[in-house]
Amino acid sequence: MQGRDRRAEITTAHGVLATALAALEGDRHAEAVREISSAVRAAADSLDRSIRVAVVGQIKRGKSTLVNALLKRRLAATAQLELTFNVNEFVYPAADAEQTTIVYRDGGRRTVSRAELAKLTLAERDRLDVLRGVDRIVFEVGNELLRQITLVDTPGLGSVYGDSAATLTYLGISLSEEDARILEVLGRQPEQVGADSEGEIGSADAVLYLFSRSRLHARDRDVVLRFLDSGAATADRGSPLRSLGVLSSCDLAWSKAIRSGAKPNEFDPLVDDAQPQIDGFLKREPEVRHLFHTILPVSGLLAEGALTLPAPLFGALRELAQVEPGRLLRWLRDIGEFSRPDLPGSPISAATARELARGLGAWGIYLACLYLRENVPEQEVRDRLLQRSGVPQLEEKIVRHFGDRADLIALERALSLPERRIRDFIRACNLRGADHPQVLDRVAASLEQTRENQHAFAELAVLRDLYYERLRLDEQSRHELLCVIGERGTSVAARLGLPEDASTDQQLAVALAAVEQWARRSIDPAVDGATQRAAGVIRKSYGDLAARLLDDSRSDSTYTGGNCVR
User: Fold this and answer.
1) Residues with Cβ within 8 Å of residue 432, at least 6 apart in sequence
2) pLDDT tens across 143-166, in order?
3) Which residue of 149, 193, 378, 384 is most buried, as measured by CB atoms within 10 A?
4) Residue-range domains of the chain with CATH
């Protein structure tokens, strides 16, 4: 599905509305139709940009740290607290040169150097008015991930609902005295920060939702549900395919586990602590599966440190690696103890210890010293730390799940807004016993036809039914369904559940056998209606793959959203 084709579909619907506007000039419904026309125009325009993925969560959940790790550079404000209360937007450069632009609340824009941006702090009193006027900071960054998505770092949802300090405490969200002082000087309230974040969620195509406990508060759920509903084409809830859950700051469990007797070189907080928590969480509250496509554990701090820790600090790590392991472990059980000024026997200064603690955390310091004792080179130590952080796995999921579906996500989002506007307007007319302009029926039919022209939308509907447990399928059938729709990879071989080196003949044999199998299921009277309909969709998906293989013998062909890509 190519961008120009999507735009043509949307522009066709807009043309219908434009004609309607001329015909309805002076009609009592003209203003409402004009608003719907504006929604369609905005939908068409939105198809020209990459999809927006918002990093969302309560205040102080490590969002900026994770963004830095994903971008492999320290760009989002984590130490410069004044700027953590603004939206940071990361896009691929329109030209070759990277640049940073401040967007002000009055609509003004100004390109600045990183050095100038770094000076926007409360310490620079003559710049305070400038700092107060910042709405967002747009970073143009030459990172490959940004070729597929725009990444948006939001300041935090702690007070979207105007939470009091007591409520923030109940939610487990702590605004430090320094945070509160900064907001006061900036003339902003926590609820304003939350409102900024909610606005970004409203304009996002997909979200990464961070939480640092294996329990979602009811308000977290409400935020995600409203986001998913905003993209739903019908009154049915939206699909969880547009949201990924991230259990963040997992490294913090390491020190606690070590104090409780866990073996430090065997305990992996992502595997031994976070994953069981996630599994138990989903078992206790299975409805959360309806909110997130999946939940992944990460240590953003470990990844950020592995990627950005200055080389001189590795010299300090080498000195620590010479410390007797038992002694170092005792220090790292309490990171505050590790960085105190009078720590007996420490080969590094307290200031350096604090830098290491901020840059890697206790788990990261322990792992780095473990590898350095094995004489592992610095770059390999960094690579190993990054792999242990879980961030590469998250990045792969983002690329596969959001990036590979970017066109489809953009089109579904674009269609949903005018569809909902039309549906709500017609419903309001019906409640008043009033007629609605018949042209809206034609427009709605045009938008619906756009959906029907894309088999990928039918596949997404099947996935939605699968996530809401409306389909009666055994594990093997579930696996086949997820593969053929692209959840296990987008190559033809991956969609057929085969290794990448499978021959064309092998792939074709599997595809044809699956067409026959799912065709039988789609007409089996013993199968319930929802599963029959899903089987029909899957039969067509396999049929498209078979047709593609018959048409083109290249084994590395890909298949995207039900449409054969040559």
Assistant:
1) none
2) 999 988 899 888 765 533 333 343
3) 193
4) 3-47+406-452 (no CATH), 51-81+147-299 (3.40.50), 308-388 (no CATH), 455-565 (no CATH)
